[in-house]
Amino acid sequence: MSWIDDAVNNKKKTRRRDPDWWRHHKIPVLQIGNERVLDETIDVSEFEFVRVFDSDVNTLTLLKMKGELGLGTGHRRSTFENCRVIGAELTRLDLGNADFRNCEFVDCDIHELGSFEANVSNCKFSGRIRKGIVFLRRPSPELEKFEAVFEANDFSDCVIDESLFRGGIDLGRQRFKSDGSAVIQDSTVFLNEVRKKLGKKVPSAPLKRFLFGVEFYASNFNQNSFFVPLRDFQKLGSEVELIQDLISPL
Fold it and tell me: How many domains, in total, are found in the chain?
């Protein structure tokens, strides 16, 4: 399901999972909690779930991870600096209540990425993100004052399939892969210009869905700029020419 389908269906609600879900499943788990970690390299290939929480971590390298990884999924804010996750195949990567600075996810296949309360800056992702949701501001009323930092991150060696950036993230302050994907810099200007071009012409169903998706996320998640994967442009067929000069290729 793409960000456009999600907007049209409007069925999914953002919920925080029970952080102790793993207790109900018999899987090999590695937990690192309430620690100061410095210059450690750990082969975690035998664990299906790795959780690092309530800790201050510098120069930690995790190798051969296959499963779910939770970083900062504790009660107090964790810090991760100069850390690396290398060659991981992650069913889920949860960047929790934590600050990430100068961290790298190297050649990782991330099936699902969640970042709701994390500060992420100067971090690099390479490999693939199949699905992800990154919030700068949570849309829920009880957390309306929450605002995270998400800046100067590098996705230039990362394929992003169906990820969403919400809550006012400045996509111009991130680096993306030049693969035919693009950024809509200003949703209001974009929508107005497309409607002018259309005039009285009725848009096709794919274009109508596309425009609805842009409008939905702009109005509901305070996201004025959009990262749009190549696959979503391809669904527009020849009508992509209508918006070609209104997007910023990466």
Answer: 1
Cβ distance 139 to 164 under 8 Å? no
pLDDT of 190 reads 92
∠ Cα 174 135 149 (to 5°) = 55
User: Would you say 198 and 242 are in contact if contact means Cβ atoms under 8 Å apart?
Assistant: yes
Residue 237 is assigned to a structural domain of this protein: no
pTM, two decimal places? 0.82
The enclosing H or E element of 73 equals none
Please indicate, yes or no, if residue 240 is contained in any of the structural domains.
no
CA distance 187 to 144: 22
What's the domain range around 30? 3-181
Structure tokens, 137: 């501001």
- Residue 36 inside a domain? The answer is yes
The pair of structure tokens assigned to 94 is 């949860």
Among the listed residues 170, 177, 37, the one whose alpha carbon sits nearest the alpha carbon of residue 98: 37
Pairing mode of beta strands 248-249, 182-184: antiparallel
Among left, alpha and beta (phi > 0; psi -120 to 50; other), residue 207 is: alpha
Tokens representing 156 are: 């230039």
**Residue written as token pair 């993100």:** 129
What is the C-alpha to C-alpha distance for residues 220 and 222, in angstroms, rounded to an integer?
Answer: 6
Report phi then psi at 133, rounded to 5: -130, 120
Q: What local confidence, expressed as pLDDT, does residue 11 receive?
A: 41
- Whether residue 31 lies inside any domain: the answer is yes
152: alpha, beta or left, given left = phi > 0 and alpha = psi -120 to 50? left
| Mean pLDDT in consecutive groups of 10 residues from the start of the chain, 250 residues | 55 48 68 92 94 95 95 91 98 93 98 90 96 70 67 94 81 86 88 92 90 86 82 85 86
